[in-house]
Amino acid sequence: MKNLNNSLYIDTEHNATYRELIVDLNLPDLEIVDDIQLANIILASPPQIAAKLDTLPKLEWIQSIYAGVDAITSKEIEADFTLTNVKGIFGQQISEYVIGYSLQYFRHFPQYSAQQSQQNWQQIPYETIDSKCMLILGTGSIGNQVAKTAKAMGMKIIGLNRSGIPPHNSNFDDTYHIQELEQSLSRANIIVSTLPHTEETNALLNEKTLSYCKGALLFNVGRGATISEQGLLMAIENKSISHAFLDVFINEPLAKDHSFWKHPSITITPHIAALSFPAQVVDIFKENYLNFQSGFRLEYEVCLNRGY
Questions:
Q1: pTM to 2 decimal places
Q2: How far apart are CA 265 and CA 286, in angstroms?
Q3: Which site in 187, 198, 203, 254 is 20 to 30 Å from 224, CA atoms measured?
């Protein structure tokens, strides 16, 4: 059994909401504290907690409210603690984002909206996403859910990961090893990056690798550093990429003078492809807390060295 008197500190953008939800759970032997120095458990947004980690003598476990934890794992940390993130709650939202924008692009919905304002009755030839090939970079829970949704729309789904082995309950038709990036990119009509930020994924999509594409749509819903910004601009200019839908960036918020804002072949969204709904996060925290209290392994543990 773990310590019977656990102290939780909450450090998120919605502290009051999280506090209320956790209080309502009435978890055994858990006290919410306002002094971070007293906490052995932290529920946090990684960017908010990252700078405070070296000053927490009692810390045993951080439960991230996000899937992405590179704000923590990218630091040199001397503290010894377990880090967990959240999984299984973002796949539906990411699927809606990718499928929604794909349909908008291929069916020309923005153009019809513009035509309506001009009382212009004009049909535009369109393509269906049925039989399109979607490549998903990263075959984890998010990627696998996107694959499931896209497959239901009639698409051919291929995935790429570090092993080339399909995930459990795979929704992928084919799975490639990361060393087969050229072959997989050349097949794709739609590319979706769900990759975490690691040394291996940094600028993985660059001028050279994007040149393998053949007019694909590119979605980045993983981490901004996966894409070389200059490489993307070159790929659009060379028509290797027809349009990029970007929800994540190396620096956020995106600078007002950034060239992406006014680029006609780039769509920008402010990191909203999938949000952490507090009630869903707290459900994960509850199960993990009960495991922690009982001395069992926590779900969704992140390796601090690998970053995922």
A1: 0.90
A2: 43
A3: 187
